[in-house]
């Protein structure tokens, strides 16, 4: 089964994240070059704006499913249509390799893990999410991200003990 | 580090023990156990570390199958024995507790 994609999600997320970046930038400029000397209330107001924006970006990031942040290759591969297959495959001419959804949050998490373990975790997670019904995918993605801190601890403990054993 | 036999671990073992010779991949395990994939993955990893389970990548051509390869998990021979023992020992106290709940002479 090919994954369904929310096609109208990209502009909304671009606006959300873009707005967050612009307002943070404006806040920083106002603070650094403003005529009024910075005081505690200004700092507090800016901290609130930054925190709200960080929340927005944090919320938007894992739900982008590769729409907002994608490498050049995957952007090219998506040209065929919403299926994630190439243009020829989308037209029904030749089969193209299936492209699992790009999950930036999963990829970022995998980078924090030991190299081989991270690659394996990511490949397995993307494979499972690819085959999962669309309705359950978001919940599964969240569960992967929520379990990541414990998994990171487990994997790094394993990796470090392996390295220590090898060094002896 | 010894494996802690939590309810989640027992659910994974139960799913794998259902047909010991059969290999299960992530989605099947998630469906059979009712666990979230984020919960099941570290359990499988620990079971593999302890030698209860082996895993392998599916040998397919993703182009032809139109899907990425799956990772299959299977109980090892020793793992199956230990898993059966673990399941039996986990059932025992639960059974005793349930017997205490059923009224004498009555049906559950």
Attribute tags:
heterodimer, A: 168 residues, mainly alpha, 0% strand, B: 108 residues, Arc Repressor Mutant, subunit A, 3 strands
Structure notes:
The complex is a heterodimer of chains A (168) and B (108). Chain A is mostly helical. Chain A folds into two domains: 1-69; 103-168, no CATH class. Chain A contains seven helices and no strands. Chain B is mainly alpha-helical. Chain B has one domain (7-93): Winged helix-like DNA-binding domain superfamily/Winged helix DNA-binding domain (Arc Repressor Mutant, subunit A, Orthogonal Bundle). Helix content of chain B is 57%, strand content 11%. Chain B has helices at residues 7-18, 26-33, 37-49, 62-65, 77-101; strands at residues 24-25, 53-57, 71-75. A three-stranded antiparallel beta sheet of chain B has the order 1-3-2. In chain B, helix 1 (7-18) packs across helix 5. The longest helix of chain B is centred in the C-terminal third of the chain and has 25 residues, at 77-101. The radius of gyration of chain B is 17 Å and the shape is elongated. Chains A and B meet through helix 6 and helix 7 of A and helix 2, helix 3 and helix 4 of B.
The gist of it:
The complex is a heterodimer of chains A (168) and B (108). Helices cover 69% and strands 0% of the residues of chain A. In chain A, helix 1 (9-33) runs antiparallel to helix 2 (40-60), helix 5 packs antiparallel against helix 6 and helix 6 packs antiparallel against helix 7.
List the helices and strands and how they pair.
The complex is a heterodimer of chains A (168) and B (108).
Chain A lengths: L8 H25 L6 H21 L11 H6 L9 H4 L13 H9 L2 H17 L2 H34 L1
Chain B lengths: L6 H12 L5 E2 H8 L3 H13 L3 E5 L4 H4 L5 E5 L1 H25 L7
Helix pairs in contact in B: 1-5
